[in-house]
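Regression test case RT-17, inverse folding.

Input:
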């Protein structure tokens, strides 16, 4: 069984979309989305520097656009049902997954992620907050320690990888007082404490944007960041998508669901690498492939053919 996943914020690098624009129709589609959402995705995906694309309001639409562009190269007819056993996305990658599951159109997903990015950027500006990755340690020890410091485990990524989020003062306290077994605390280059109560101001704006959509039920199983469960209705998926902005990402539970559903292969859409790395540690025996450039498409197509739901 094949799982198709979309990465989250932080996966972007300067110029990462440049080779994709050589593919027929790709630049036109990107320019259409740019005009629709009022953001020059071509510039940000090809010429902008690291600081420019770190901006939450830029990074989020850019990542969803990249995931959708690469997915439509793999599945030009737009129908994933015969090949894909489950779809999911990490954090903002969930919006790409919603479109791939057939819940909303690609255009609607781009409009929604533009609202999400701007709303979260505004929420992050209210208080000086951030996120730090913990290297090493055991969740049973780490999680109570974070709670003691008032921090939120914003990403529980599996394999013991946890990202803490909170105020800069709380994160400084964490660096000075690491949980037992944690080797290092690494500050992430993000604008705020995503997936925590600090993002609550963004929820209302995203809720209004989601309410304007007419979601369909997913045509392929959609696995939610909230609890790793598959969600059967489009309305519930959008409800979860809105609430997820201010709640932790449980990617560990998503990977457990992939395993329980019998996953044999996982393809991570552009800009791939982060989620395949997690899968290699948490899903031993599952073949993985990260789409970084168009040069990876043939290998991805071969893996899909070998592990699709219709493969012998």
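Golden output:
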């Amino acid at each position: 069984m094949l799982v198709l996943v979309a990465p989250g914020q932080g996966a972007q690098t300067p110029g990462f979309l440049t080779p994709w624009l050589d593919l027929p129709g790709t630049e036109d589609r990107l320019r259409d989305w740019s005009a629709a959402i009022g953001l020059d995705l071509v510039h940000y995906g090809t010429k902008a520097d690291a600081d420019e694309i770190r901006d939450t309001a830029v990074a989020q639409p850019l990542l969803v656009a990249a995931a959708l562009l690469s997915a439509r190269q793999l599945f030009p007819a737009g129908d994933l049902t015969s090949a894909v056993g489950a779809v999911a996305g990490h954090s903002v990658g969930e919006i790409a997954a919603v479109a791939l599951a057939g819940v909303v159109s690609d255009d609607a997903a781009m409009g929604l992620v533009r609202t999400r990015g701007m709303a979260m950027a505004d929420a992050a500006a209210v208080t000086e907050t951030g996120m730090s990755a913990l290297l090493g340690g055991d969740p049973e020890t780490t999680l109570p320690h974070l709670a003691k410091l008032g921090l939120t485990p914003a990403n529980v990524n599996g394999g013991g990888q946890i990202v803490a989020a909170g105020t800069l003062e709380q994160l400084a306290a964490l660096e000075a007082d690491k949980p037992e077994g944690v080797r290092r605390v690494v500050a992430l280059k993000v604008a705020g404490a995503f997936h925590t109560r600090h993002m609550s101001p963004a929820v209302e704006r995203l809720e209004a944007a989601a309410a304007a959509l007419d979601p369909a039920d997913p045509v392929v199983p959609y696995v939610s960041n909230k609890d790793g469960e598959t969600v059967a209705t489009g309305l519930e998926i959008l409800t979860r998508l809105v609430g997820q902005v201010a709640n932790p990402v449980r990617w560990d539970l998503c990977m457990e669901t992939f395993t329980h559903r019998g996953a044999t292969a996982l393809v991570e859409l552009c800009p791939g690498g982060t989620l395949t790395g997690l899968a290699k540690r948490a899903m031993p025996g599952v073949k993985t492939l990260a789409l970084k450039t168009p040069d990876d498409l043939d290998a991805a197509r071969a893996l899909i053919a070998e592990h699709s739901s219709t493969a012998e």
